[in-house]
Amino acid sequence: MSKLPGIITDPPLEHLAIIMDGNGRWAKQRALPRFAGHKQGVETVTKIVDECVHRGIRFLSLFAFSSENWGRPRPEIDALMGLLLQFLTSQRQKMLREGIRLRVIGDTSRLSQSIQNALADAEKETMFGETLTLVLALSYGGRDEIMRAAKQIAREALAGSLDIEQLDNRSFSRFLDTGDIPEPDLLIRTSGEMRISNFLLWQAAYAELYFTDVLWPDFSAEELQKALDEYACRKRRFGLVDD
């Protein structure tokens, strides 16, 4: 099948997930504070969201703040949360205008009440967006997500509302934070690290993985296209054979 520039053709890519890594190193290379790297990283987010809309990708999941990131210095955490609030405020009208729906996954109970309220308001306001679902993983860890799902399943089984013998992969998936979201087709990690770092552990079982040395603040439309071109050359068998 022929391919047009910027258009996803064969195989189809519905859900793109990205581990945005390298903000701190980007700032260090320029003798800047880490905050400068995070700020530039937010600028990259807005550009990649635009590119996904342009390319017809329907779901974009971004690993924005992991459960392990709570161990970082408090000033850095506060700065990240400030950037999150700024992003929600500055992008609100754009999301509404372009049909971008916001979804948040992770243990949001650990976030401040003001952040929780802002996220809830943004999710509610954009809930009818159909162009792109932007999934922000905040205070998120794949193991934590699976554990929370298992506990909910146990509660429902003990209450008699769930027959544990009828549980399968599909029904288990509905208990995850991403229960209403298709599994990722392609997972990109920037900065040269070659691991998925507790991100979408269940969901990414058959995702194609793409690693690049480019730091997240420098990740551009051209770099995204390289990943998409590579994805287009992959054969996804899901444990089967070509026939």
Give a concise summary.
The chain has 243 residues and is of the alpha/beta class.
What does this structure look like?
- There is one protein chain.
- This protein has a single domain (15-142, 183-232), classed as 3-Layer(aba) Sandwich (Undecaprenyl pyrophosphate synthetase).
- It is 42% helix and 15% strand.
- It has helices at residues 23-29, 34-55, 74-98, 113-125, 142-159, 169-173, 221-232, and strands at 15-19, 59-66, 100-105, 132-140, 186-189, 208-211.
- The longest helix has 25 residues, at 74-98.
- Mean pLDDT is 93; it is low at 1-9.
- The two termini are 18 Å apart.
- It has 243 residues and is an alpha/beta fold.
- Strand 3, helix 4 (113-125) and strand 4 form a beta-alpha-beta unit.
Sequence-ordered SSE layout with sheet pairings:
Elements: E1 15-19, H1 23-29, H2 34-55, E2 59-66, H3 74-98, E3 100-105, H4 113-125, E4 132-140, H5 142-159, H6 169-173, E5 186-189, E6 208-211, H7 221-232
Parallel strand pairs: 1-2, 1-5, 2-4, 3-4, 5-6
List keywords for this structure.
243 residues; alpha/beta; Undecaprenyl pyrophosphate synthetase; six-stranded parallel beta sheet; 42% helix; disordered N terminus
Total number of strands: 6
Tell me the strand order in the biggest sheet.
Answer: 3-4-2-1-5-6
Mean pLDDT: 93
Oligomeric composition of the shown chains = single chain
Number of helices: 7
**Beta-strand fraction estimate:** 5-15%
CATH topology descriptor: Undecaprenyl pyrophosphate synthetase
- CATH class call: Alpha Beta
**Net shape:** globular
Element-by-element helix/strand order? EHHEHEHEHHEEH
Class from helix and strand fractions? alpha/beta
Helix content: 40-55%
Please mark out the parts with pLDDT under 50 across 5 or more consecutive residues, or reply none: 1-9
Q: What is the terminal-to-terminal distance?
A: 18 Å
Q: What is the annotated CATH architecture?
A: 3-Layer(aba) Sandwich
Question: How many domains, as an integer?
Answer: 1
